[in-house]
Amino acid sequence: MLHHDRMPRTIAAALLMTAAFFVTPTSAQESTDPIKLTLHDWTGQLITTQIMGEVLKKGGYSVEFVQADYLAQFAGLESGDLHVAMEIWETTGREAMDAATATGKVENLGETGMQAKEEWWFPEYMKEKCPGLPNWEALKTEACAEAFSTAETAPKGRYLGGPVTWGGFDDERVEALDLPFEVVHAGTDAALFAELESAYQRQAPILLWIYAPHWAPAKYKGEWVEFPQYTKECYTDAASGSNPDMAYDCGKPFGPIWKVAWSGLKDKWPGAHEAIKAFNVGNDEMGAMITKVDLEGKKVEEVVAEWVGANEAKWSEWIKK
């Protein structure tokens, strides 16, 4: 075995650097360029992405986290300026994902293991003021609109949507279903749930975007509004739903949360490509981690480090694939 003191320092340094990058056999012929993973503006996605990033680092990869807009990121994934997006929700991102994968420049790497639900949600105490709930048609009555109204929106009801960057077609849905409601978008994920917390404590009226996996539907008693069932045609063909002139006259789709990547990932970093495909975390597991951050005040990095420390048997299989 050669000793570093018998080699020129430059060669020794190069070998050390090589060893640092190539920890696993799968990465022996792979690029040392950083793999760029996108970060968005909700806690669960930050956790998912940083878990994957930490696992890739354990596999010897260089990783870079890049803040990106949820829907606009697809342009970066198509160009190869961004490499991996860990959470594309069936509920809000399916159209953008399908359009990107159709170009051949973006690849769907399969399900994360989490099932997405995003829909209009109300606290249980609002049923007294709007007795027809959870049926969406109850929202069409003047009494219900008034029950959910605020000084700014009266006589219309107020629906608190997620940040505009999340998509979701709520404005289109209100128009297509002729609901007497005004959509007001929360500025951030944190602002959305701060408003829910405040309203719930005061038993004040609120109708808002709630998603799962998340702690909110477990912490608060309430229900999702039951809209006409989603179909693909509802979003693409105005004639298919109850309103013959407009699309989006139905609820949001439910389904998996997907992982996607720049299609060049598999050639440049084949081991990382396999590891990301293997990533799998369930709703309950993710909900518990989001709770630690949002309700217990822990840092995302702290919760991710705890998970990585406790689940080596699981993630070590991902980077072996």
Explain how this protein is built.
The structure is a single chain. This protein has 321 residues and is α/β, with parallel strands linked by helices. Helix content is 39%, strand content 19%. The protein contains 14 helices and 9 strands. It has helices spanning 9-21, 43-58, 73-79, 94-102, 142-147, 170-176, 189-202, 216-219, 232-236, 265-268, 270-278, 283-294, 300-310, 312-318; strands at 35-39, 63-67, 84-89, 106-123, 157-161, 181-185, 208-212, 222-224, 255-262. The strands form 3 sheets. Strands 3, 4, 7, 8 and 9 form a 5-stranded antiparallel sheet that branches. The longest helix has 16 residues, at 43-58.
Draw up the topology in text.
Blueprint: H1 9-21, E1 35-39, H2 43-58, E2 63-67, H3 73-79, E3 84-89, H4 94-102, E4 106-123, H5 142-147, E5 157-161, H6 170-176, E6 181-185, H7 189-202, E7 208-212, H8 216-219, E8 222-224, H9 232-236, E9 255-262, H10 265-268, H11 270-278, H12 283-294, H13 300-310, H14 312-318
Parallel strand pairs: 1-2, 5-6
Antiparallel strand pairs: 3-9, 4-7, 4-8, 4-9
Helix pairs in contact: 2-12, 2-13
Main sheet attributes: strand count, strand direction, barrel closure: 5 strands, antiparallel
pLDDT below 50 for ≥5 consecutive residues: which ranges? 1-27
Number of E-type strands: 9
Q: What is the helix content?
A: 25-40%
Large-scale geometry:
globular
Q: Sketch the topology as an H/E string, one letter per element.
A: HEHEHEHEHEHEHEHEHEHHHHH
Query: Which band does the percent of strand residues land in?
Result: 15-25%
What's the number of helices? 14
Measured distance between first and last alpha carbons: 30 Å
Give the C-alpha Rg: 23 Å
Give the averaged pLDDT, no decimals.
90
Structural class: alpha/beta
> Looking at the chains present, what oligomeric state does this protein adopt?
single chain
